[in-house]
Amino acid sequence: MVNYKDLGLVNTREMFKRAVAGGYAIPAFNFNTMEQMQAIVMAAVETKSPVIMQVSKGARNYANGTILRNLAKGAVEYAKELGCEHPEIVLHLDHGDSFELCKDCIDNGFSSVMIDGSSLPYEDNIALTKQVVEYAHQFDVTVEAELGVLAGVEDEVVAEESHYTKPEEVIDFATRTGCDSLAISIGTSHGAYKFKPEQCTRDPKTGKLVPPPLAFDVLHEIEAKLPGFPIVLHGSSSVPQDEVDTINKFGGNLPDAVGIPEEQLREASKSAVCKINIDSDSRLAMTAAIRKYLAEIVNVLGSDGKLAKC
Predict the structure, then answer these.
(1) Are residues 46 and 125 in contact, defined by beta-carbon separation less than 8 angstroms?
(2) What are the tens digits of pLDDT across the range 221-253?
(3) Is the dihedral of CA 282, 288, 294, 300 positive or negative?
(4) Can you say whether residue 13 is alpha, beta or left, with left for phi > 0 and alpha for psi between -120 and 50 degrees?
(5) Is the separation of the CB atoms in 102 and 136 below 8 Å?
(6) Of 94, 97, 116, 155, which residue is the catalytic one?
(7) Contact call for residues 211 and 261 (beta carbons, < 8 A)
(8) Is 155 a known active-site residue?
(9) Which terminus in the chain has less CB density within 10 A, N or C?
(10) What would the DSSP string read from start to end of 283-310?
(11) Residue 152: which residues within 8 A CB-CB, separation 6 or more?
């Protein structure tokens, strides 16, 4: 058993409490590699922000649990090296799909886990979530649960259609499970294609898609039923169009990729939304930079690999 506190990590309880009171949200960045981790820590230190570093089941399998645990410990030390005396870094499991997976993460240094039983019947979701909560709380690990279904694809999480969270269920679910935060569905979705073109309008000047607004009425109803309770938005990357344009310019093929407008995320964070998940944006930024760099290197070297004449 490796306790997260021995790695210098923290759980989400206090940072969420401050975020809800302060009307802001904590970014939760998915990462797979050391390079992504470095960028996340550098940004957090530069902005003097707490941060959640999260990994999916697939990312954990890729990175290896032992390496991942030591990367998290290294992230804390790196933050101190960059000048942050008391880093607030969470290592979080994103979309855990079983009690066994959540337990293994808790036993190996994670400070927070998500158990996603949203695809299960309601009572089964409650039973699974409660099982994870009871184990996690023994070690002061916080637990995120999910009600409602997000459309889209993220690693092994796939759903064709979304189903909004039912506000009438949230009090019963939170009370019976004891979860520390709740991921809800109000119109966000996984991946770089969060909306189909027919769901959007087009900007007459740029031709870019303009996504529909999130279901803030559902969010506000949930907030009224669970005042002050930490709410999480998954599938909330903004899909910056400059990154999409760079990818397409250098050989990519992302037509009509569209995300959640940042102004809507800011509006959501003024309520009880205190954690916003970001995955696609990081992938897009890295992909754009790599494509641009490789294309420029080819131009410098020439198609035959030799230094081109200037």
Answers:
(1) no
(2) 999 999 999 999 998 889 999 999 999 999 999
(3) negative
(4) alpha
(5) yes
(6) 94
(7) yes
(8) no
(9) C
(10) HHHHHHHHHHHHHHHHHHH-TTSSPPP-
(11) 158, 159, 189, 190, 191, 193, 194, 235
Spell out the residues 6+ positions from residue 19 whose beta carbon is closer than 8 angstroms to its own.
25, 26, 230, 269, 274, 275
Where helices occur in the chain by DSSP H, the ranges are 13-22, 34-46, 57-63, 65-81, 99-107, 122-136, 167-177, 216-225, 241-249, 262-269, 280-301
Q: Percent of the chain at pLDDT above 70?
A: 92
Please list, residue by residue across 208-245, b when 16 or more beta carbons sit within 10 angstroms of its beta carbon and e when fewer do.
ebebeebbeebbebbbeebeebbbbbbbbbbbbeebbe
**Residue pointed to by tokens 């935060």:** 181
Residue with tokens 């290197």: 297
- Tens-place pLDDT, residues 33-73: 899 999 999 999 999 999 999 999 999 999 888 999 999 99
CA 38 → CA 30, 32, 34, 61, 281, distances in Å? 12, 11, 6, 20, 16
Report in angstroms the alpha-carbon separations of 36 from 30, 83, 173, 212, 283: 9, 19, 35, 30, 9
Q: Residue 220 corresponds to which amino acid?
A: H
Alpha-carbon distance of 147 to 170, in angstroms, equals 8
Decide: 71 and 100 in contact? Cβ < 8 Å: no
b/e per residue 140-150 (b: at least 16 CB within 10 A): ebbbbbbbbbb
Beta strands 209-210; 201-202: pairing state: antiparallel
pTM reported for the whole predicted model? 0.90
Q: Which two tokens stand for residue 228?
A: 């002050």
Q: How many CA atoms lie within 13 A of 24 on its CB side?
A: 10
Q: Which two tokens stand for residue 232?
A: 């999480």
Q: Could you say which DSSP state residue 160 is in?
A: S
